Amino acid sequence: MDHTEFNIEEELKKLPSQPGVYIMHDKWDEIIYVGKAISLKNRVRQYFQSSRNKTAKIEQMVSRIARFEYIITDSELEALVLECNLIKEHRPRYNTMLKDDKTYPYIKVTVYEDYPRILFSRDMKKDKSKYFGPYTSAGAVKDTIELIHKLYRIRTCSRNLPRDIGKERPCLNYHIKQCSAPCQDYISKEEYWKSIDQALDFLGGKYAPVIKLLEEKMQAASEEMDYEKAIEYRDLLNSVKQIAQKQKITDSGMEDRDIIAMAKDEKDAVVQVFFVREGRLIGREHFHVSIATAEDNKQILTSFVKQFYAGTPFVPRELWIQTGLEDEGVIGDWLSTKRGQKVRIVVPQKGQKERLVELAEKNAALVLSQDKEKIKREELRTIGAMNEVGGLMGLSGIKRIEAYDISNISGFESVGSMIVYENGKPRRNDYRKFKIKWVKGANDYASMNEVLTRRFSHGLKEAETLREKGVDEEFGSFTRFPDLIMMDGGRGQVNIALEVLKELKLSIPVCGMVKDDNHRTRGLYYNNVEIPIDRHSEGFKLITRIQDEAHRFAIEYHRSLRSKGQVKSILDDIPDIGPNRRKALMRQFKSIEAIKEAAEAELERAPGMNARAAKSVYEFFHL
Fold first, then answer.
1. Does residue 210 carry a pLDDT above 90?
2. What is the reported pTM?
3. All domains of the chain in start order, with CATH
4. Cis peptide bond N-terminal to 209, omega within 30
5. How far lies 114's CA from each of 53, 162, 193, 204, in Å?
6. Most buried one in 161, 239, 343, 391, CB count within 10 A?
7. Which helix (H) or strand (E) holds 282?
């Protein structure tokens, strides 16, 4: 899209003084920011007015804006909903983003059915069922449902009852005493509903009756010397006590509420949420947030609340929150609409409420500090290891490494692999596979020459094309060249790479990863010298990972080709060449080598070929 015609100053004059959502695009038409406004005219203009109050991050964002668009809404509430949806869909880089996309399980009781079921559910629908949750552990939900089936013998089948009563035999659950078989009319509807009511009480936290009942049954079975039955009741009793113990009492308010607080550093924040249901703390969860252009806790928590509750079906009766929110009234109205009744947003000032928010804040700070230590360890393993490898060769600023390997097993066609590590981590989107076209037979040196020539020739041509179009070169798939090339081998492979780079007039350091007689990494070969490495260092571990990954990727590609059958031809990869033309070419030229050496005019004269197909074949083998 050509944005040269978009005049920001002129477009600002056209903005309406109505509520809506504005969308900022960069010069590649990527959406970089989405926001909402009571007055689009006032809000969007603020970005482009000179002001000393703008943060460096906002200044950076504004400098990238090539155009903006907007959507008018009838109210600020509608704008809020639309903003949440657009942020979730496009994940703009300058919006404060919730990194975690978690979903929480529910226990669903189908009370609208004549013979209800108790099910695991990932969402909460408006289907007249009764829902319990959300819970933070799917495993705990499944354990609870399994226990309820054992305690109350609730059906799990999807049979339509009472219509299908007596039509089929009872299932295995009846025989293992985990279902009372209403499908056979072995239990009346009234008795079945008594079990459902007891299960509902259990899910609501009333554990005392079932604990008392199981203790009595265990004692009776023991007195009757039915020890097998007593053990069964004991196990059930332990399961109930375990679930009851997890449901810690928070207060006597018996409300559903989420308690939300956060801690942050320069780049990231951690938000901690305590989930309280019917007065019981049923779990807690932390969420990582990239703070982007946000300036303070209020902005971060506002973005979190909007994104989190846009993605979860359950909205509690209350939010206890560390600090007030921006647009708190609109957010309160939105949450109330989602819940179907008034939702209170509370900033506790004293007493137990304040202590619980402080506890959530301390937990968030703890997670953030632990993650910092984890990040430090990871940096030693990645960026630190990259710097160490560069230091061995006297090189600095090594961020991107490309490593190459050739695989040719059992005489099957050779393949090459290119893997990429950036800042010490694999960048798998940049990996590339090469089916060898120009080399006949198993010749690793010639195959490597072909792979490197094709890789860097393609990169140079692609960069030239992008420059002609006025597009930044970094957006090409092959245009990003490495700071260091690592070859799987010593002097021979390094010299091949240096020859290719010299031919293409490129200057990129090349080293070889040398192995000992036991095929273990021994050192690096660079500038005609073998450099030993400390086997216990992070740099050595990184080199080993790179070498293993290059070999794995080549072998994996080779294996995938062989699995498709030995009869697969390289001609299958040429555009415009289908099965009939492939057979015609082989009949005419007898071998792949003869097809490679044929002139374009010769190819066109082959049966079933035309000028376009001939050109496609010729360019495949010669470009």
1. no
2. 0.49
3. 8-95 (3.40.1440.10), 106-205 (no CATH), 257-375 (3.30.420.10), 386-563 (3.30.420.340), 570-622 (1.10.150.20)
4. no
5. 64, 7, 9, 21
6. 343
7. strand 280-290
